[in-house]
Amino acid sequence: MELMEEDVVVVGAGIAGLATAVALKRVGVRALVLERSEELRATGAGLSLFPNAFCALDALGVSYKLTSLYAPSTKGCITNIASGITREVSFGQGLGPIAVHRKALLEALAEELPNDAIRFSSKLISIEIEAADHKRQDLSGILIHLGDGTLIKTKVLVGCDGVHSVVAQWLGLSQTAYSGRGAARGLALIPEGHGLSQDQVHQFVDTGKRAGLFPLNDKEVYWFFSCKSTPQDDHDMSRDPKLIQKQVIEKHCKDFPAKFLEIIRQSDLATLTWAPLVFRYPWNVILGKMYMGGVTVAGDAMHPMTPDLGQGGCAALEDAVVLGRHIGTLFLKNKRIVPQEVGVALKSYVNERRWRAAGLITGSYLSGWAQQVGNDWWMKFLRHVIFYKFLYPKIFDSIRYDCGTLPLNVDDPTKVD
Predict the structure, then answer these.
(1) What Pfam families does UniProt report for this protein, alphabetically (predicted)?
(2) What are the structural domains, with CATH classification, of the chain?
(3) Which of 10, 70, 156, 375 ranks highest by number of CB atoms within 10 Å?
């Protein structure tokens, strides 16, 4: 049995995991990232990043890698399929989303880490707390068992292992709740050009359905579609990209604009995915056990949410910076990770993130509900008078959030004053 010792172990090399490792590196803390896949995963093809995400990316020192490749959206249009009415939306200065390749974001983060910082083909099996070792006070009692028999002893464990997080289950967090909806995502490459305005987001809504087009450049378009579904639908669709494409075009979106359907037809099947939309009840985030000793969670492992505000990845980047700040402050004070003080840092991190995460979960769910309910008069009243007039402006303010900066580590040559 191989035995390893690490100061910090991060489970999952997705957005939250890589960003957390980068944040820790910038404050002088090495983290080992465990990834069960053989390489970086790019599931989902693309995603939208809002200003709050770029505040976090600025703190991580990688935002320039994306802003040099992708331009922000300045406006959007929302078409009601049933009525044919299109509503124009103008984003405020600097508030529009930027659609990026998910792989580009992951690579931008991974490039900041040492070559040996990510251990692929490493599946977390179990976690246990070792009894205190009085002869080795510098070690915590967190033991991590991997599927290949490797045992890792660490002082801090951060679960960034997604909605089915092993770390979250170990902490005792509640299971995710099924929203009753599923979503398809994909990427279309159109060599002759897609003809869409690159600074405009296109959305389509119908009873129980929502779709969107996000141009990445003049030839590539990221698209999504969500609708009511059943667990059996989700199971069948998730296994076959051709079935996803066929069902979206011929069943779910047959009344949608021809341009949307044509983009789906030209999608790269390798990028097509279907997944059930799940979330954690906000009161479980507020009241749940988000840390214990030196163990905590971040990203979808902490706050899975529906994608209706486009805040899943953005919130994961915020988590990374906030966690890096609290652990970094501890490290810079002591010049090392002191196990007895780690709990204080993680408590501060969790307290800072609880209400923020609960608000995003609630706002995302309400946004999805309001845009996809029926067209009865009372539903229209709730949507246009209650939601769009009073609630949505407050929800939309979430994209202006600034998660702050990382403490200065004078020994890090990548840190910019």
Answers:
(1) FAD_binding_3
(2) 3-70+100-176+280-400 (3.50.50.60), 180-276 (3.30.9.30)
(3) 10
